[in-house]
């Protein structure tokens, strides 16, 4: 067992876990943030995507000890109080989710995608960059719409400057 | 109609918790003292279990118990049942082998459980499972229908000689032979419908908790129908009587049919929880899901269609072999029979149909209903036949279909179904307009100039949904009735709780069902809660599958609402000293017509609960329940058109344009309906292009992870162009037909018809991988 400490959603956390514990299991079980999901065992589905030090990471592919000392953001930490992040709001507005299981990973991936592209996204880019996130419910149609809309909205304040 | 009533594109109430990470799925449940289960599974497709040695595992840290199939038998836990009796054409009942939750003597597919380890942590259970030594005596295996029906095939179950479960038929054989003998043209095809793995993103999970104080069990489970689960667990598996067993299906991450069934793992966790007197959690990993979730489809058919000289259909003759896998799953027997062959008339006048279906055991995962369940297989067969016939006759495939459409209703097919309403020309016209059919030759030429092969393909599908009239399905062998229940509880402050036996696992019932209440009472959907998925809260229900929650589930709510409204009108009339017939309900207020007298619904509700001033003899309270039993199936139908472009050098197919024109009857929330179609289309296009389940000859599942089984990704799919035409369903109060499965039913033949059009070569099996398409283009043997 190893004591692993990190900052999750702005809060300092610490837990004793087996060395082999994956980051996703640390989040879900050690500190009870169950919004991050496990949909496969092979790093394909992306239901477990979180941000580690500002970058999207599949938390089933990283050991908890590797994230020690890092700053992690999960789906639970994305909204500011009652104010949804623009990507969360866009997923709701455009019906970008059905069963909701892939949604946390989709949203965390989308936030990272929009950041990396400075909000400059088109449909082909969004579809290509969603390669690592699988959804079985929506056929991706409304997820793509939601991400494009959120990207446009997040770009607007910058364009106004 | 208010802003949140029927027909409005209301954003979903349930989304808030899902987009903020507050969804509550089964694997999120944690109980004090909870232990973890890990199953020991067979690595062989067919073998005798000679011995199981758990001594080493029991000595490992944290291990509480290792339990085997023999102990299940000793505790008289029942074998898994198949809930739909199908008789062969000779009148004999289907022949089934025993299906134990853990195999005590013989394993019949790779992944079948033989033992379970219960330990303090998940890792301890997993580690100890590796230390359980099972000695097997391997037997030969058969994974395909052809292999299982061979004269020297291994025999899976002594009860089913020749591995044959049933040899069933439907229709008039003599009339069909007469039709063929008088035919001017006969079109014949061999058609395979590929085996699929449903793959909801949430893996199955179960948390079982035995409470020794009350001698009662609670099961949290990933179920589309928790009440059916409780019934079956109680009545057949000897787990506990119903009043001592609570089944909760909380947020469920997709189902697509695969979460209808009561699986071995749930049975074992419940039984083991009582044995070890601790809560137990089991959650499938993805490879385990591939190895244990019921698969779908897997038909091999020979089909012949007879036409007269004017290209009118005279008859259809079909012989289908259905691969059931190693055991008969809960509703498996009904899928290739009553959910498949009864739809073989499609949208067409076919005077004579005769279909034979042979159900066959193989050493593979059990097969059962997967989104569409039998109807995709029927649609694929018919719509490949129609396109092929048109090509052979040199006719436009649109014209051949139109010439044979059913145009007057009700229409009695030769295969049981009575279509109640539809307008197939309307949906075809809408689709042709949307795709710009006239412009296709120009688009094809433009594609050719870019070096691409462009093709167009059609599919005019019909399905039977809203399952189903209990009396009818009972006469066909169903072990249950397929009605639905609802209870509408009005609180004293005028808010409303609707308890429903339907279950939402992505369908958005918390919104659409609330929209129905909003429509009726004029109150906001935020004043309404939908309660479902808990046998302690909802009295009973048959669950969600077969596109039934709107047509059947909401009809039950309408019936309960009718009773609530009738009582509320009486109370309002009494309070306002008006005639009951003069009461109108508008915008959340009860008004006396032609006067300025009115009172808010909340005050009517309060009066019902104070009981201070009610009509003489009226009971206090405002709560009503109802059961709704459908009068017929519903018949959603439509036309799908697919355009593809193929790179001849690589064989890669790109879906460049996809139009869906559906008739679902009344739509409660078009946004949600469209979402259902999008998802269905992705699964259907996935079946056509990407998804193939591959077994090695000795029964190893070669496609048991997302690295091997190709799930549709965002860049495999286009944005979809959706249209609707409407004929209301006359059989239920809201006129709903159902929309959950259409996309998966209608799309595969449209894709394959487009590909074969593009390459000018009619032979193409699903999935049409680049290797197969390239081989077809270049005249080489297909690389399967």
From TrEMBL, chain A:
One of its GO terms (molecular function) is oxidoreductase activity. Coiled coil: none annotated. Keywords: 2Fe-2S, Iron, Iron-sulfur, Metal-binding, Oxidoreductase. InterPro entries: 2Fe-2S-bd (IPR002888), 2Fe-2S-bd_dom_sf (IPR036884), 2Fe-2S_ferredoxin-like_sf (IPR036010), 2Fe-2S_ferredoxin-type (IPR001041), Beta-grasp_dom_sf (IPR012675), Diverse_Oxidoreductases (IPR051452). It holds the Pfam family Fer2. The keyword Iron-sulfur applies. Residues 2-78 form the 2Fe-2S ferredoxin-type domain. Gene3D superfamilies: 3.10.20.30, [2Fe-2S]-binding domain. This is Carbon monoxide dehydrogenase. It comes from Prosthecodimorpha hirschii.
From TrEMBL, chain B:
Residues 20-140 form the Aldehyde oxidase/xanthine dehydrogenase a/b hammerhead domain. This is Carbon monoxide dehydrogenase. The keyword Oxidoreductase applies. GO terms for molecular function: iron ion binding; oxidoreductase activity. It holds the Pfam family MoCoBD_1. PANTHER family: ALDEHYDE OXIDASE 1-RELATED, XANTHINE DEHYDROGENASE. Keywords: Molybdenum, Oxidoreductase. It comes from the Bacteria. The keyword Magnesium does not apply.
